[in-house]
Design brief:
Layout lengths: L15 E2 L5 E7 L4 E7 L8 E3 L3 E8 L1 E6 L8 E4 L3 E4 L5 E5 L5 E8 L8 E3 L9
Antiparallel strand pairs: 1-2, 2-3, 3-10, 4-11, 5-8, 5-10, 6-7, 6-9
């Protein structure tokens, strides 16, 4: 795996669309973890997925939304907004939606580093996905 020790600037254009439907903007990648910014557009709902091997730490920068993690928080969605953080454990189906009037924006630290789209499994979610 290649590690770039130079500073990484946030790009204007997304790097890719994640398997859950959110927009991903790649940032730094180290040997033990990777960092990206994630944006879910206004009033959008992600596809429910789970991760095969990685754990993620999310920190919300702006917007308002809800995150459902199967088997956690009494199996009901938790509200999130700027300043909140949470954990997405491996093998845990999860889904999130934007309930605010602007984009839901957050940072994701993935450990180990994100291996690619094959890491995700499509799952049954809490909400039907809106397209």
């Amino acid at each position: 795996m290649q590690v770039d020790l130079d500073p990484i600037a946030l790009r204007i254009e997304r790097d890719y669309c994640a398997p859950d439907g959110s927009e991903i903007f790649e940032l730094s990648k180290g040997t033990h973890g990777s960092l990206c910014q994630c944006i879910l557009p206004e009033q959008a709902t992600s596809q429910a997925v789970s991760h095969k091997t990685v754990e993620e730490l999310w920190y919300f920068l702006s917007g308002e939304g809800e995150v459902w993690r199967d088997g956690l928080s009494h199996n009901v969605p938790v509200p999130v907004r700027a300043g909140f953080s949470l954990v997405i454990p491996p093998h845990t189906p999860f889904q999130f939606r934007n309930t605010g009037s602007g984009p839901l924006t957050f940072l994701i630290t993935t450990m180990p580093p994100w291996p690619g789209p094959d890491e995700c499994r499509i799952e049954n979610g809490y909400w039907q996905r809106k397209r």
